[in-house]
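Hey L., structure's done. Input below.
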Amino acid sequence: MPAFSAIIRLRLYKPGVILRRMDVFEAVAEPTRRAVLELLAGRERSAGELVAAFPALTQPAVSRHLRILRESQLVDVRGDGTRRLYSLRPATLAELDRWLDRYRRFWSARLDELEGHLDAKASRERVGEVT
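Output:
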């Protein structure tokens, strides 16, 4: 009997896009997944609660988002009887925060410069009103 090998390609969202592990940045780029993370920031939630929070989406669509967040290590899941409870995964979020920190400093300095410019402009306009 000849050896048989099969390649199975799973497709997500549209034909021609092969499913692969998504990195953290791709995972948080999608608005629905960010909304899920926002919900989980408050407390642990069941899969049913998360599905109910998105009435415009089907249960399988929400499940796909949860799977992507799980595979990206942004959320943890645990069983509680028949329920699956989701919670944020702090380590991955801390890693994301460290990466973003470089850019916070950039924007902080730029925003400080903008504030100085606007304050100076307002001062010049006030002086112009007085004269």
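Confidence is low (pLDDT under 50) at residues 4-13, 15-19. The first helix runs from residue 24 to 29.

-- N.
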